Amino acid sequence: xxxxxxxxxxxxxxxxxxxxxxxxxxxxxxxxxxxxxxxxxxxxxxxxxxxxxxxxxxxxxxxxxxxxxxxxxxxxxxxxxxxxxxxxxxxxxxxxxxxxxxxxxxxxxxxxxxxxxxxxxxxxxxxxxxxxxxxxxxxxxxxxxxxxxxxxxxxxxxxxxxxxxxxxxxxxxxxxxxxxxxxxxxxxxxxxxxxxxxxxxxxxxxxxxxxxxxxxxxxxxxxxxxxxxxxxxxxxxxxxxxxxxxxxxxxxxxxxxxxxxxxxxxxxxxxxxxxxxxxxxxxxxxxxxxxxxxxxxxxxxxxxxxxxxxxxxxxxxxxxxxxxxxxxxxxxxxxxxxxxxxxxxxxxxxxxxxxxxxxxxxxxxxxxxxxxxxxxxxxxx
Length: 381
Known about the structure:
Elements: H1 41-51, H2 60-85, E1 97-99, H3 101-127, H4 136-155, E2 160-163, E3 171-175, H5 176-186, H6 190-210, H7 214-229, H8 233-251, H9 258-261, H10 265-296, H11 300-312, H12 316-325, H13 327-353, H14 366-369, H15 372-380
Parallel strand pairs: 1-3
Antiparallel strand pairs: 2-3
Helix pairs in contact: 1-3, 1-4, 2-6, 2-10, 3-4, 3-7, 5-6, 6-10, 7-10, 10-13, 13-15
């Protein structure tokens, strides 16, 4: 879908949540001291928009019809997802934001800027870098270009997401050109495919709105982990040596991506804990979308089979890049999390499973993702 989608009803322009001029301290509070701009976020957006592949070509009227249909599918998903998950969310859900690829890039870079500001504050303190230090502008442009290129790659892959928007307003995003592209590639019913994807993304919205503490908990864990993984100058040499030793592991099937290469053993434990939470969220969304499916989506079995097969059919360069970026591990989260959810539900039912949302302490531990019975014993006794 071309940029026609950006002007269609239901799409939105980027609205910043936190940019490079909004400074937070290490705890996420506003800070009066300036933080060096390690990333030029505007340049990142410009780079991402320049590099992102064009979506499927449609006319303006077709784009408007697609956007309206996606918004309708998102609204229709709310009741069956709440009923199946038994997690009614408070209040009235705002309409999903249906966006094109460039707008998705802008919104995600805004969220990334908000998430990384406390990390940059930490780096600035450790390195004692002045905001006007020589070379800062060039370095910020380079990291901005890298961030934009990464977002351009991701923008062609993501069907939808619940954007946690640190320091901003959370929102459900659906990427119109990607839904059209994948639906055509799979050759499945367009309405059924839209409904199926919206069930998954609506489950994420339910998770974060029906469980009040979950959003801040995950943001805090992610921000802390990002800060821990950012090496000080004293640590950088040792980290680089460790990365070179572990590069074959990242290229292997079990690797967690480049970020995992920089981690110390203690940090890999923290990565595993966050991964367990993400596995829960993604697996739960996959289970709900498939459980709701037969009631309202006639071709759900065909869609699931073709979608799963599509994940296997990527070329070698794409698989390598996905492995380095940790996207292969992301695919494992869907699989492992779904097995965990179904394993728990089989033992204690949906209401028993929903005890997982009681508090941070009831979230599954890394080992429990692969051993649902261990979680049941710990939480239910």
